[in-house]
Amino acid sequence: MSSHKKDHKEHEPKIEDQTAPETVEEQLGDVVADDLEALYLEIQQLTSERDEAKEQVLRTLADLQNYQRDFQNYRKRNQQEILALRQTATEQFVTELLPVLDNFERTIAHIDAGATVESLLGGIKAVERQLRSALETQNVKRIQSVGEPFDPELHEALGTEVSTEHPEDTVTLEIEPGYKMGEKVIRPARVKVAKNA
């Protein structure tokens, strides 16, 4: 009995452990699946990079808005400070001029009271000196003209006159004085200029 079983086992076909080769469709499916997985991973990475870039842009825009707001606040403060400085400078200048005005009023009161011409003239000259002194505190100075070479930056020629006393293009007559504040001409002197015959 045992030999019969042994013979039977010998005649059974041997089953080999082989997997069947993949078909072309299965191989293509694997390639497509691999490609899709790679594309999916790349899309995830690009989406992540896009989101990071978007966040960076939003942060940058927020920073720009903050800088813009800060700059506008700075500009407003600066304008307010400039206005305050101008106001202070104007107040100081007016304070310098008020005594001049007081002396003009005194001079007018002396005229009404019948003061002599000599005393009035002395008072007017004192007021003029006081006014020039007030202007000098603001760095306002009269432009020298007569006898100086004509300079279109400092002088405005209103005419010419023949002169043997002065070289050509020399200021011979000041019709209206000019003034500078520091180095800036705030009013040119109106003059006549020498021309040789």
Describe the structure.
By secondary structure, the protein is of the alpha+beta class. The protein folds into 2 domains: 37-138; 139-197, Nucleotide Exchange Factor Grpe, Chain A, domain 2, CATH 2.30.22. The protein is built from 3 helices and 6 strands. It has helices at residues 2-11, 24-112, 117-137; strands spanning 140-142, 155-162, 171-176, 179-181, 184-187, 189-195. The strands form 2 sheets. Strands 1-4-5 form a 3-stranded antiparallel sheet. It has a 3-stranded mixed sheet with strand order 2-6-3, with no helix packed on it. Helix 2 packs antiparallel against helix 3 (117-137). The chain is elongated, with a radius of gyration of 51 Å. It starts with a helix and ends with a strand. The relative contact order is 0.06.
Count of domain modules: 2
Strand order of the largest sheet: 1-4-5
Radius of gyration, in Å, reads 51 Å
Question: What share of the residues does DSSP label as strand, in percent?
Answer: 15-25%
Give the tags.
2 domains; 197 residues; single chain; three-stranded antiparallel sheet; 61% helix; alpha+beta; Nucleotide Exchange Factor Grpe, Chain A, domain 2; three-stranded mixed sheet
Question: What does this entry show, briefly?
Answer:
The protein has helices spanning 2-11, 24-112, 117-137, and strands at 140-142, 155-162, 171-176, 179-181, 184-187, 189-195. With 197 residues, the protein is an alpha+beta fold. It folds into two domains: 37-138; 139-197, Roll (Nucleotide Exchange Factor Grpe, Chain A, domain 2).
